[in-house]
C-alpha cells in the first residue's frame, strides 16, 4: 500500500476553500469504490506538473475511507493506526509484490476473482432474501457497485474485499 500524506496538502480538494473542491465528489466516489487516490501534489500525478516527491495517498480521500470503515464497524476509530491494526489482523500488512503504476493504487482484479466474489455475494444476498438495493444499503455501497460485482464486471480491490466479506458474514 502507498503511504498516505500525514496532513491535507494546501490545495487538497477536501480542504475548505480549495480551488480543486469541484473534484471532491468524484474523489469520494472513487475512494469508496476501492480506488485509493494519489495526492495531486505528489508524484507524477500532480496537477501542476511533476513534483519530484514520492507518490502518496491523498489525506482527504484517506479520511473519507477511514470514516466509512469506522461507521460500518470495521474500524474501532477512524485513524491510520486503527487501519494498520485491522490490516495486520487480516494479514493485509505485507507489502504488495506489484510495483506502483499509474494514479490508481489498485492492480487489476482477475476475472476468476470477479467470478468468485460475484458468486459469494449473490449467495449471501439470496440466503438473506435481500434485493440488490437492500444488500447495497447493508454493505453501505452504491447499488451500481452491487450490480457490477454480481455481474462479475468488477470486484472490490484486495485491500477492501476482506472488509466487505466480513460484513457479509
Can you describe this structure?
25% of the residues are buried. With 169 residues, this protein is mainly α. It is built from seven helices and no strands. About 7% of the residues have low confidence. The two termini are 26 Å apart. Helix content is 43%, strand content 0%. The radius of gyration is 17 Å and the shape is globular.
What is the strand content?
A: under 5%
Count of discrete alpha- or pi-helical segments spanning 4 or more residues: 7
Compute the average pLDDT.
80
Helix/strand/pairing class, anyone?
Answer: mainly alpha
Radius of gyration: 17 Å
Tell me the layout of helices and strands:
Elements: H1 24-32, H2 59-71, H3 80-89, H4 111-127, H5 132-139, H6 143-150, H7 161-167
Output the keywords.
434 Repressor (Amino-terminal Domain); 169 residues; mainly alpha; globular
Quick summary:
With 169 residues, this protein is mostly helical.
Amino acid at each position: 500500500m502507498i503511504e498516505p500524506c500525514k496532513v491535507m496538502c494546501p490545495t487538497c480538494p477536501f480542504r475548505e476553500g480549495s480551488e480543486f473542491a469541484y473534484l471532491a465528489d468524484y474523489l469520494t466516489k472513487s475512494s469508496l469504490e476501492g480506488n485509493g487516490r494519489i495526492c495531486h501534489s505528489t508524484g507524477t500525478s500532480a496537477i501542476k506538473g511533476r513534483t519530484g516527491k514520492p507518490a502518496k495517498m491523498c489525506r482527504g480521500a484517506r479520511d473519507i475511507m477511514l470514516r466509512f470503515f469506522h461507521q460500518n464497524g470495521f474500524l474501532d476509530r477512524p485513524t491510520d493506526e486503527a487501519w494498520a491494526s485491522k490490516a495486520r489482523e487480516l494479514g493485509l500488512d505485507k507489502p504488495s509484490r506489484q510495483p506502483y503504476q499509474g494514479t490508481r493504487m489498485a492492480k487489476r482484479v482477475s476475472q476468476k476473482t470477479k467470478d468468485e466474489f460475484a458468486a459469494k455475494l449473490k449467495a449471501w444476498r439470496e440466503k438473506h432474501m435481500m434485493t440488490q438495493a437492500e444488500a447495497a444499503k447493508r454493505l453501505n455501497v452504491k447499488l451500481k457497485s452491487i450490480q457490477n460485482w454480481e455481474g462479475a464486471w468488477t470486484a472490490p480491490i484486495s485491500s477492501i474485499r476482506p472488509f466487505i466479506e466480513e460484513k457479509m458474514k
